[in-house]
Design brief:
Neuraminidase, four-stranded antiparallel beta sheet, 2 helices
Length: about 375
């Protein structure tokens, strides 16, 4: 999600934003898991290396760098046809939206401002890209054609200190959900893709949807985070904002829910047993099952497009790496190796399920990015 604009104004805005972010993340549980919403999580260049984009085949046999060494990237999003990735990079001085072909060719910059951009999201039809920008001095939502033309704003937050962030398309592309504090605290709204028909869905003294809001595959429900019961936990509501309820009914920090492709199950991360573990539940919150059993942190699960595998992050071997498992928790195996302990929570399955794109902090060459060779302990 965010980082704010213009020399002294930009720096002051960043300080303010990061203070608010830190306060939020302590409650969200994200400091414990190492996961930050993309727009709140700047990946800074380091003397010994850089944040770079890669993809790996799901068997770990091929690891492909997408961005040149020491040219950073973050906030990954595959195009619906799997031919391109949109991402954010500050290689030209500030965070801008770029696209690149799946094979690393065709790098194209789409935005040209003195501001920060973040959270690129392809429309389900692949013809438009939704993104956040602080080009007016506060974070608002914008949309453009997939070639970068036709950029225009979708939100205008008039209240002092108000911003709009965290956009998400409905599966059919007919609506966009987002989060805004335009009325004092963070609430979930929806709008039409042309920026009309804004509707507030939540109305609560707590913060709703700041960390995530996720549409069900059929567009009938939204999963979201809320601290209305003290801790940041998982809630669900109908697409029109009715029937809001605490999904898991466990009063501990929980985060990062992901719908199964058929919409029947939800995988998520919970600290109910003292550390971050991954759980599975029916879409109605029933039949909750623990999938990982490890003293390390296991978090940020994502379903494969066919629903047969779940990718997640774990530091069980000392550094944050990508792992795979079956939906019942069996066949847990490490996919990546040689990565540092920074930034591997931004992993995304390709639409055809053959690759996983991710962000990694590397050295000045890619010698550390080895293919994952399975050992008996991996299974």
């Amino acid at each position: 999600m965010a980082d704010p604009k213009s020399s002294r104004h930009v720096e002051m805005a960043k300080v303010t934003a990061y203070f608010s972010i830190f306060t939020l993340l302590v409650g969200c549980g994200m400091l414990g898991s190492g996961r930050l919403p993309d727009h709140l999580s700047p990946l800074s260049p380091q003397p010994e290396g850089q944040w770079e984009l890669f993809w790996t085949t799901v068997d770990g046999s091929v690891i492909q760098p997408l961005t040149p060494p020491l040219e950073p990237g973050r906030s990954l999003a595959w195009s619906p046809d799997g031919s391109k990735l949109a991402f954010i990079s500050d290689r030209d001085g500030n965070g801008e939206v770029y696209v690149i072909n799946w094979d690393g060719a065709g790098l194209t910059r789409l935005t040209f401002t003195a501001a920060e951009e973040d959270d690129p999201e392809w429309s389900p039809q692949g013809d438009r890209i939704l993104f956040a920008s602080d080009r007016t001095g506060k974070w608002e939502l914008y949309i453009m054609n997939s070639d970068g033309t036709g950029q225009h704003s979708l939100t205008t937050t008039l209240t002092e200190g108000g911003e709009s962030i965290n956009p998400s398309w409905t599966p059919d592309g007919s609506r966009i959900s987002y989060v805004s504090n335009r009325e004092g605290n963070w609430e979930i709204y929806t709008m039409a893709p042309d920026g009309s028909q804004h509707r507030r869905l939540t109305s609560n003294p707590a913060w709703d949807g700041f960390c995530w809001n996720e549409w069900s595959p059929d567009g009938r429900f939204i999963l979201f985070d809320s601290n209305r019961d003290g801790e940041y936990q998982i809630y669900i509501m109908a697409a029109d904002g009715t029937d809001q309820r605490h999904l898991t009914q466990v009063h501990v920090p929980e985060e990062g829910p992901a719908w199964s492709p058929d919409g029947q199950k939800i995988v998520f991360t919970s600290r109910r047993n003292g550390n971050w573990e991954i759980y599975l539940a029916e879409a109605n919150g029933m039949k909750q099952v623990r999938l990982t059993q490890n003293p390390a942190r296991d978090y940020n699960p994502f379903w494969s497009p066919d629903g047969k595998r779940i990718a997640f992050i774990s530091d069980r071997d000392g550094t944050n790496e990508i792992y795979l498992m079956n939906p019942d928790g069996s066949r847990q195996q490490r996919l990546t190796r040689g990565m540092s302990d920074k930034g591997k929570d931004r992993h995304r399955w390709s639409p055809d399920g053959t690759k996983i794109a991710y962000v990694a902090f590397t050295g000045r060459d890619h010698s550390s990015m080895r293919s994952a060779q399975k050992s008996p302990s991996d299974d």
